[in-house]
Amino acid sequence: MNEELAAEGITYRQGQVLAWLALDGDLAQCDLAERMSVEPPSLVPVLDRMERDGLISRDCCPNDRRRKVIRPTVAAKPLWSRVVKCANRVRGRSVRGLNASQEKALLQSLRHVYDNLSGVASGRANDECSAADRAADQT
Question: Mind listing the domains of the chain with CATH numbers?
Answer without folding.
Answer: 1-94 (1.10.10.10), 97-139 (no CATH)
